[in-house]
Design a protein that fits this description.
Layout lengths: L11 E10 L2 E9 L12 E7 L5 E8 L10 E9 L6 E8 L11 E10 L2 E4 L12 E14 L4 E10 L8 E8 L6 E7 L8 E8 L2 E8 L5 E7 L19 E8 L4 E10 L8 E14 L6 E4 L2 H4 L12 E3 L2 E5 L2 E5 L5 E3 L21 E5 L8 E7 L4 E7 L23 E2 L3 H8 L1 H17 L7 H6 L9 E10 L6 H20 L5 E7 L2 E8 L4 H16 L2 H4 L3 E6 L9 H13 L1 H4 L4 E3 L6 H4 L2 H15 L2 H17 L5 H18 L5 H6 L1
Parallel strand pairs: 31-32
Antiparallel strand pairs: 1-2, 2-3, 3-4, 5-6, 6-7, 7-8, 9-10, 10-11, 11-12, 13-14, 14-15, 16-17, 17-18, 18-19, 20-23, 21-22, 24-25, 25-26, 26-27, 28-30, 28-31, 29-30
Helix pairs in contact: 5-6, 8-13, 11-12, 11-13
Length: 683
């Protein structure tokens, strides 16, 4: 089924336990039926969904059943999945919970194990029950086992949410460590991480990304959220990053899975009691996925929308202005300009409750700016995505707030962010743009200059961001190239600069709106552009490029007798393949030798028929032999034969003809008695 924010029928999604194998992501989740009012995570079992793209979810039903009212696993809570190479079985370790056990002198929380040959068929091992030692670790908190094989120690590790004994109620939380050689017998070790900061540290997880290790856990001290720690070593010491959370409290108990190239966060968006925004937060809600990205310089992590999820939104809706609130609107060349002395807004009607909003806001004089949703025409109710660069803060706010009484002053106006989804954010990049704009443009343009002179740059997303300051995201990359051919009476130096200025203006205005990033650079008679855009925008990009080119072709006042040709390289998914798109864009331009100018040209990536038929070697050999005779007539005849055979070869490309000309010219140069042969050959 294709849908976002999955919620099972008549139930809610609790903690997710992700696992990846062979192109499929398995999302086990705690199935919370909420049979009794305000009782959460009761009567829970493990259920399973499978997905390859985070949009099309295949629900597989219950995967781990719970026990009876007298069993340790009256409720089945969070755990982890590992595949054992020795027995070929999947081993699932999960939290067993029965609040009645304590009354009979037994621990409330324990660890149980389920196994199976398939992830869809798991059976609990009835004689396995692993409890706290009650000495180093308290009995009450002993849950969320995360099991993995430690290569360095050559044994299995189990990390658990626990508490150190004889410690205060609010700061005793730790991540316990146990070891095993066989997944059956476990020993108690010293805490893996004991920061003395939290009540407890739920859903621990350890993974490596790049050169950094990450320890992940969720807390309900100070705020409900998922934290992470960073280290260059798997066992610490662990550093707290400047912004140590993945998301706000609305996305809790995040755990991750990776295919070896990309890593994704699995969590749940909390519901609110009574299905009203004024109700208190609840445990569990709807399923949610994000992609995790890494800053390779300092290791800090961020989450972002998954491009495949954004592609779910295929129907484009044109926004039509409904009304103005306390502002005036001016239609600008690159969109809409809004002016207001205080609070102003443009209000648009939208249908449906699930949509993606793609827009560019360029604030000039402002205190705060943002987007409002579900508002009335007087802006007295609604939700507000507030951007506050001064405080480096992005937050979802709501008005009116919380409790409302009989009088105006009985609204919780002093509660800063009722929805409690405030995030610190780095807005320094915009400052760099404002203060060092010219320098930044040069750095960004340098990529295309480098491609012109060096086609083996070893590009990656990190290099594009860190060296060239491009704001790239997973999607598609594509290069376009435009060539000027000056007319007989045109002053080339005068026309090139003017034409390129106008062409860049058109391209930047139209293409930027549909791209994650778009950068251009001028190289003599060539203008190059690199686009990074969502895959869903492929067809839209083609139409926009064609429209931009046609706009310029129609400008006789600028072009005069100068003719333009545009070549397009193929789209590539990986940054390392941008050079291939660049080469093909240049190849496409050469097709104007056959197709003519004032056209959009595309070539294929083949080696060419002249090379396949070994005609290049034949022609260069014949020309070399003719040059040795120093007979002008024979040389002329040989060139005519080469020309005729080349043009008569079926399927010959323009770039092949150009390459043939270059090779023949190179042979001539080698015969010349001049000092600058090498320089001439490069021309």
């Amino acid at each position: 089924m294709g849908r976002l924010f999955y919620k099972p029928e008549n139930a809610w999604v609790g903690d997710l336990i992700p696992y990846y194998e062979n192109g499929t992501y398995y999302g086990f989740y705690l199935h919370d039926p909420r049979i009794r009012d305000k009782e959460y995570a009761e009567d829970t079992t493990w259920h399973l969904i499978e997905t390859k793209d985070f949009v099309n979810l295949d629900y597989k039903g219950e995967s781990i059943a719970r026990g009876g009212i007298h069993d340790a696993n009256k409720n089945a809570y969070t755990g982890s999945v590992i595949k054992c190479e020795k027995d070929g079985l999947y081993h699932v370790f999960y939290t067993a919970y029965n609040e009645d056990f304590k009354l009979r002198g037994k621990t409330i929380q324990s660890v149980m194990q389920a196994t199976g040959k398939s992830l869809e068929n798991l059976e609990t091992v009835k004689d396995f029950l692993f409890v706290s030692d009650g000495k180093q670790y308290e009995e009450f908190d002993w849950r969320d086992p995360f099991v993995f094989w430690n290569d360095e120690d050559q044994c299995y590790y189990m990390l658990l949410a626990s508490r150190v004994t004889n410690r205060g109620d609010l700061r005793g939380g730790c991540i316990a460590l146990c070891k095993s050689e066989d997944l059956i017998n476990w020993t108690y070790e010293k805490p893996f991480y004991d920061p003395k900061m939290y009540i407890t540290m739920e859903c621990p997880e350890l993974f490596k990304m790049g050169e950094y290790w990450y320890l992940v856990f969720s807390t309900f001290s100070d705020q409900f959220t998922t934290h992470y720690r960073i280290s260059k070593n798997w066992n610490g010491p662990w550093e707290i990053p400047d912004d140590d959370v993945f998301d706000t409290r609305a996305d809790y108990a995040i755990k991750t899975a990776s295919d070896g190239k990309r890593r994704f966060a699995f969590g749940w968006i909390a519901s609110k009691y009574g299905n009203t925004d004024f109700g208190p937060w609840e445990w569990g809600g709807t399923m949610n996925f994000h992609e995790i990205i890494q800053n390779s310089k300092n290791g800090e992590l961020r989450i972002k929308a998954i491009p495949e999820v954004l592609d779910y939104f295929s129907k484009e809706i044109e926004l039509k202005k409904e009304t103005l609130y306390n502002c005036k609107m001016v239609q600008a060349q690159d969109g809409v300009s809004v002016e207001s002395d205080t609070l102003g807004a443009l209000l648009y009607p939208l249908e449906g409750d699930t949509f993606a909003l793609d827009m560019v806001i360029k604030p000039e004089r402002y205190h705060e700016f943002g987007i409002a949703l579900h508002v009335d025409k007087e802006l007295e109710t609604g939700y507000f995505l507030r951007m506050n660069p001064k405080n480096q803060l992005v937050a979802w706010d709501m008005w009116p707030r919380g409790e409302q009484g009989r009088y105006q002053w009985q609204i919780k106006g002093d509660v800063p962010y009722q929805i409690e989804t405030a995030r610190r954010t780095d807005m320094a990049f915009q400052d760099i743009q404002n203060e060092r704009r010219e320098e930044l443009i040069k750095l960004r343009n340098m990529l295309l200059h480098d491609l012109c002179h060096d086609r083996s740059l070893g590009l990656s997303e990190d290099i594009l961001r860190e060296k060239y300051y491009l704001n790239v995201q997973p999607g598609l990359y594509q290069v376009l190239a435009i060539k000027q051919d000056a007319g007989e009476n045109d002053s080339k130096e005068d026309t090139i600069e003017l034409i390129w200025h106008k062409m860049e203006e058109i391209l930047q205005r139209e293409i930027t709106k549909e791209c994650y990033d778009f950068v251009t650079a001028i190289e003599g008679e060539y203008l190059y552009g690199l686009m990074n855009y969502p895959a869903r925008n492929s067809e839209k990009i083609r139409k926009i490029v064609r429209s931009c080119f046609n706009q310029m072709i129609a400008r006789n006042d600028y072009l005069g007798k100068t003719q333009l040709s545009l070549g397009i390289g193929f789209s590539v998914k990986e940054a390392e393949n941008i050079k291939d798109s660049f080469v093909l864009a240049n190849r496409s331009l050469a097709e104007r030798l056959l197709e003519g100018n004032s056209k959009i040209l595309e070539a294929d990536a083949s080696n060419g028929v002249l090379y396949e038929k070994k005609l290049v070697d034949k022609f260069t050999r014949n020309l070399g032999s003719a040059l040795q005779t120093l007979d002008v007539e024979e040389i002329r005849n040989t060139i005519n034969v080469i020309y005729n055979e080349t043009m008569e070869t079926p399927g010959v490309h323009g770039w092949e003809i150009l390459e043939m000309i270059r090779q023949c010219g190179s042979i001539f140069i080698m015969r010349l008695d001049v000092p600058d042969k090498a320089e001439l050959q490069q021309m």
